[in-house]
Amino acid sequence: MLKEYLDIIINSYQGYFNYLVAEITHPSLHNYVYMLLGVSLFFWGLEASRPWRKDQPLLRQDFFLDGFYMFFNFFLFPLLIFIAVSNLSFALFNRFSALLGVSNLIAVNLAALPKVLQLVIFFICRDFIQFNIHRLLHRSDFLWQFHQVHHSVKQMGFAAHLRFHWMENVFYRSLEFIPLGLLGFGATDFFLVHIFALVIGHSNHTNYRLPLGPLKYIFNNPQMHIWHHAKELPYRYGCNFGISLSIWDYLFKTDYIPKDGRDVPLGFYGDESFPKNFLGQAVFPLFQNKK
């Protein structure tokens, strides 16, 4: 049994490394590396041509730090540890389920529905789960120590979307696993929905104004999300927690857009002493939680 788990770990590293090399060396429309690069360049172009905060430099504060976070969280971190741990956890979960006599995790079979409708359901369910995880990151003192990395942004831009502590990968993926598994969604579904959510997430953090009219009550947007990053907040645990969809905030009364937030100060109280570099931010919560 031990050899089986060691093989899972070794194969995970080998498989992901080969995948990453193939992604980098074979550009295509279905290539995540270049899709992420293309989406990022598109929104950077919007910041250059139609900046909302016109006095903010194109190479804003921490631009390259956020670029490294984008590379680390989406490519390097899975290679270092996450892909092996997640595959091992999946194998252990399946073995434990089998011991309990559970052979099929799927509770709701959506296979009979049209594919587009399946993806829409997946997108809505995943976003609702992430909305609640995001609220938890703010309400839990322990989890907030990690989430502070994302809120340490002082000048907002598209790449700030992907500035988050590596532990958030663990929180989100772990808490998403069972509820999404119950709906029977696979890797292809995840990829398509993830790309759509990536575009919205980049948009929400981009330095440009996106008037949505009545659609602002459904989709998150830069004018709404800027208030989530505001240093002065109306509620104890924050506001505007929606990831892709804003409708959850309006339904659960966590919405807050008192005025145009273009020049609202960003951050959190105490961020003056927060580390300014990647390594310091990566280990800071771990030492804080030992106090």
What does it look like?
- It is a single chain.
- The protein starts with a helix and ends with a helix.
- The longest helix is centred in the first third of the chain and has 37 residues.
- The radius of gyration is 20 Å and the shape is globular.
- It is an all-alpha fold and about 290 residues long.
- The protein has one domain.
- Helix 1 runs antiparallel to helix 3.
- The mean pLDDT is about 85.
- It has 10 helices and no strands.
List keywords for this structure.
single chain, 291 residues, mainly alpha, 10 helices, 60% helix, globular
Gist of the model:
This protein is an all-alpha fold. The protein has ten helices and no strands.
How does the helix and strand content classify structurally?
mainly alpha
Can you give the helix content as a percent range? 55-70%
Largest sheet: none
Tell me the count of domains.
1
Q: Which stretches are low in confidence, meaning pLDDT under 50 for 5 or more residues running?
A: none
Strand content: under 5%
Shape: globular
DSSP strand tally: 0
Query: How large, in whole angstroms, is the Cα Rg?
Result: 20 Å
Helix segment tally: 10
Topology:
Elements: H1 2-25, H2 32-49, H3 63-99, H4 115-139, H5 141-151, H6 166-182, H7 187-205, H8 222-228, H9 247-251, H10 278-288
Helix pairs in contact: 1-3, 2-7, 4-5, 4-6, 4-7
